[in-house]
Amino acid sequence: EKGGYEHYMRKEIHEQPVALRQTLSGRIDIERGDADLDVSFPQGYLESLEEIQLVACGTSYYASLYAARLLEQFADVRTTVEIASEYTFDGGRDPWRTLVIAVTQSGETADTLGAIRRAGGAGARTLAVTNTLGSSVTRETEDSLFIRAGPEIGVAATKTFASQVTTLALLAVEIGRKRGTLAATDARAVLENLRELPGAVQQVLDEEARVLEGAERFVDADAFFFVGRQFGYPVALEGALKLKEIAYDHAEGFAAGELKHGPLALVTGETPVLSVLTEGARPGETLNNVTEAQTRAAPAIGVTDGTVETDSLDLALEVSEIGHMTPLVANIYFQLFAYHIADLQGRSIDKPRNLAKSVTVE
Ligand code: M6R
């Protein structure tokens, strides 16, 4: 059932083009320049929305950080993201005008269920974004939106991250169109980028041998630092989480600009720095931060779409530029990198120590 793959995680990484096509299927209306999602908000609700709050844990939290930027840009609505276990609802005088979205692959995460229950109880409107039909979260919320990634067995979330961001990107388009903050031509450009996403992901998967070479070079490193800006920041956080989870190596994700405010003290010749150097991630500024790390002898691995000159990197990995979605494509390299670092060390990739696929205690 692993379809010839040694691990579910690698199978699920490779399933992403198919999963993303499912996520997008029937939901793009290029002619109207709109998304067509199977969730119906009450008449006039989205227009009068005052705030969106996303609540989630782990990888779903990082997907939410990515999506929040899209929601703010397209829908011009204040959007906050909170770790579910830290969440308290403060909806002001009219809580219903706040849409609280629980983002959860399994739909069973206790922290996320607790958060959405608190929001619903206080009078907010609630929406579940999940991979699992009939899961607990769908019984706690007014509406549900399915990410359609297909079952994910590996404890490390991979294809569901991409499908979560993609589903929320469609939602951001729909809300932006309803509110009149996103013009049809701009929406069309976003939708075209989404249509190109599965192909761009496939191109990365075709480069897996280069990632393996990189992993072989750096497998003995002391620690791994991931840096990015803008949409590249949640991708850096997610890249580091994958490596921690399955390789048990020390890894941290930073906003690239923060390196010089402290973490740079940790940088040595034994700490590779992985970066997102693409559209949507301020590649020029990020490259400057990477260069600072290289000056302290750190090896540099960067994902590039050709926007900046990357000759100075120790390893440059290429992606196609697809606007706001480019950093999401860069993330596929980080998934493959974590997988191969873990595999070279013989780790229990699909069932890492101490972790469970769905965390049903608070
Ligand atoms: O099922 P959920 O999306 O609610 O799960 C949230 C986290 O437990 C989950 O993303 C976890 O961080 C993964 N193991 C990450 O790979």
TrEMBL record:
Q: In the UniProt record, does the keyword Transferase occur?
A: yes
Q: Which UniProt keywords apply?
A: Aminotransferase, Cytoplasm, Glutamine amidotransferase, Repeat, Transferase
Q: Residues in the active site?
A: K357 (for fru-6p isomerization activity)
> Per the record's keyword annotation, is Calcium included, yes or no?
no
One Gene Ontology BP term is:
fructose 6-phosphate metabolic process
Which cell locations does it reside in? Cytoplasm
Q: Which residues of the full protein are shown?
A: 240 to 601 of 601
Q: Subunit arrangement?
A: Homodimer.
MF-aspect GO terms: carbohydrate derivative binding; glutamine-fructose-6-phosphate transaminase (isomerizing) activity
What Enzyme Commission number(s) apply to this enzyme? 2.6.1.16
Offer a single GO CC term for the protein. cytoplasm
Protein name stated in the entry: Glutamine--fructose-6-phosphate aminotransferase [isomerizing]
Q: Please report the stretch or stretches of sequence annotated as the SIS domain.
A: 37-181, 214-352
What does this protein's UniProt record list under function? Catalyzes the first step in hexosamine metabolism, converting fructose-6P into glucosamine-6P using glutamine as a nitrogen source.
Give the catalysed reaction(s), semicolon-separated. Answer: D-fructose 6-phosphate + L-glutamine = D-glucosamine 6-phosphate + L-glutamate
